[in-house]
Amino acid sequence: MNKLVKTIVGFLLLTLLFVFACQKKNDNEETIIKGKATLYVDESIFPIVEDQQAVFETEYDAKLKLITKSEAEIINGLLNDTVKIAVLPRKLSNPELKAFNSKKINPKITPFAKDAVVFIRNKSSNDTLIAMQDVISFMNGNTVEGIKGLVFDNPNSSTVRLLSEVSGVKIPTQKNIYSFKTNAEVIKYVAENNGMIGVVGIDWLFQPPLEMQAVVDKTTILSVKAPNKNEYVFPSQDNLAQGNYPLARDLYIINCQGYSGLGMGFASFLGGERGQRIVLKSGLVPVRYPSRKIKVRNTITKDKN
What residue ranges are annotated as transmembrane (predicted)? Predict the structure, then answer.
């Protein structure tokens, strides 16, 4: 009898241990609104993604680790399977999509906002305008009045790639063209050096980290005249939405997880009502404008003095 009791007790203990292990595994399991995941973010658009992350984590039992890299580094990571979720200011190209298809991977690409690459200069200057043709001329090695130097964040960045595409000129490694590592470094350098023109993502200026606000306040965002155009256009929310600003770009989350994980959940959040409101409030342009609730009253109540 004692042997039978011991056997039963042992069996029950093993069962409890198994149930506990399964429960622990389920607690750690990643779903679309629960668990942990790593997101690689193009450094030039980090502020808006960080804002979205903060709200997402307060609403769900989720933890998103954000890692900033240049656009080229993130693309290479996606192609090498070391990056599963990325936020970038461009879609995947056809050759990149073919590379994924050859590995039987179907990336889920979700647009969620429109932002811009902007030119900035030291606030001590009264000049708030810049012509793309002058920038192109300077990139070709010519002397241009008002431009002592061009300052980029990173040779492999999305800002460099976009400016090269728009201008048709490969960013040269020449005197008076500088590159750092981050947008924050560019802004700081321009704020401290007259005559330098910085090239950065606009969200770093609309919603900078608190410790950078004083530095941002020493810079001015320039209105840009595109080649063969007569008007200078400021990168306002309205001009970005209407497609008037020549260096506007779309933002995407690219999910290569291959299962229903946080990549899918965060993408749904970005494109949903709450995520789009965050985009709108940031000064960028949402893919779809959030709805507004308007309360109609039958009578008008006068305010009391």
Answer: none
Q: Determine the 3-state secondary structure of 190 from DSSP.
A: helix
Bridge partner list, 86 = 40, 254
Cross-strand partners of 111 = 252
Q: Which helix (H) or strand (E) holds 11?
A: helix 2-28
What is the mean pLDDT for each group of 10 consecutive residues in the chain (305 residues)? 51 46 53 96 97 97 97 96 97 95 94 97 94 94 93 93 89 82 96 96 93 96 94 97 96 95 97 96 91 54 50
The two structure tokens encoding residue 122: 């030291």
In a domain, 44, yes or no: yes
Cα end-to-end span (Å), the chain: 89
Could you list the residue range(s) of the whole structural domain that residue 78 is in?
30-114+250-286
Residues linked to residue 178 through DSSP beta bridges, in sequence order: 151
Tell the residue number behind the tokens 């009264």, with chain if given: 126
**Interatomic CA distance for residues 200 and 158, integer angstroms:** 10
d(CA 252, CA 113): 7
HSE of 1, CA atoms in CB hemisphere, 13 A:
0
Neighbouring-strand partners of residue 62: 35
The DSSP string of 118-165 is EEEEETT----EEEHHHHHHHHTT--BTTBSEEEES-TTSHHHHHHHH
- For residues 88 and 127, state if they share a domain: no
Radius of gyration of the chain (CA): 25
300, part of any domain:
no
Q: Does residue 84 sit in the same domain as residue 152?
A: no
For residues 84 and 187, state if they share a domain: no
Task: Give the integer Cα–Cα distance in Å for 167 and 224.
Answer: 13
Cβ atoms 284, 81 nearer than 8 A:
no
